[in-house]
Design a protein that fits this description.
single chain, about 290 residues, alpha+beta, four-stranded antiparallel sheet, 11 strands, elongated, disordered C terminus, binds zinc ion, lyase
């Protein structure tokens, strides 16, 4: 599943490809992709004549911002966008086509069919699902060490599921949570409420640097992620812990282990990321 860096890469690519174009018509061939409005015909008709002004992002959601309307799009497992000429043959698994007045077409393909689109009036999108309850945006200036500590400290869950919870911090998935926890030297099952302020600050820095480096590298290519121009991201070559089961830890040389935390496959170094033990709670934390 694409995480924040991959969606950010798609956002940047779509910005180059479709900003300024005007929608002439829309064709939906798989109604369940469209979550709002309920009526597919209304979705198709409402978009006619609208011009793409900007491509935004909130967490893992793209915001295709038009004059008066915003289309909120989640790629989920394998959704992807591509720009085509109207004369190009339509490939299999193409479910939504935005026909532009200049003869080009933005096509949405989704083999797994889990992707979603919600159409809103501008501004309305933040007051309703799926954006209403989203947490801190980690590459935004509003993501401060204080805000992060406030949202994570005191949680009674393990730290990994806390980081995956999009109501606390958005954009982090399985890969970048493992990378950030490794960088901060925190065991994925450590109770969130037992982390010291200093350790939370380290984790905060690790989240920011991991995501920023991945964005700079154009997102990661895991399985089928391809950005809007069909380019593969490069960050997978920089993973320090994810997918490296059995390989030596880049920091200490101990074999990387894989376990399951909160139902998710989890990579960690048992030497660099020590589990919480109850006698630690009586010591000075950190
Ligand atoms: Zn290690």
């Amino acid at each position: 599943m694409p995480e924040l860096p991959e969606v950010e890469t798609v956002r940047r690519t779509l910005t180059e490809l479709i900003v300024g174009k005007t929608i002439q018509s829309v064709t939906v061939s798989l109604p369940r992709i469209i979550q709002r409005p309920d009526d597919i015909k209304r979705f198709e008709i409402e978009l006619i004549g609208h011009r793409i002004l900007e491509i935004g992002r909130r967490g893992k959601f793209l915001r295709i911002i038009m004059d008066g309307l915003v289309l909120v799009s989640h790629l989920r497992m394998e959704g992807r966008y591509g720009l085509y000429d109207k004369s190009d043959p339509v490939e299999k698994h193409t479910h939504v086509i935005f026909h532009f007045t200049d003869g080009s077409e933005l096509r949405y393909k989704d083999v797994r069919q889990f992707g979603t689109m919600h159409l809103f009036r501008t501004g309305e999108e933040f007051t309703m699902n799926p954006l209403a309850k989203l947490g801190l945006e980690p590459l935004d200036s509003s993501f401060t060490a204080e805000a992060f500590r406030e949202v994570i400290s005191g949680r009674s869950t393990k730290i990994k599921p806390a980081l995956l919870n999009q109501e606390y911090v958005v954009g982090l998935g399985n890969i970048y949570v493992d990378e950030a926890l490794f960088r901060a030297g925190i065991h994925p099952e450590y109770p969130a409420k037992e982390l010291s302020a200093a350790k939370l600050d380290e984790l905060y820095e690790a989240i920011k640097s991991t995501l920023q480096e991945a964005v700079d590298a154009g997102g990661s290519s895991i399985k089928s992620f391809v950005n809007g121009q069909g380019e593969m991201g490069m960050f997978q070559h920089s993973f320090q812990i994810y997918g490296r089961k059995g390989e030596p830890c880049v920091s200490c040389g101990h074999a990387v282990e894989k376990t399951v935390v909160g139902g998710r496959g989890t990579h960690y170094c048992p030497n660099c990321q020590r589990p919480f033990t109850s006698d630690q709670s009586n010591e000075v934390k950190g």
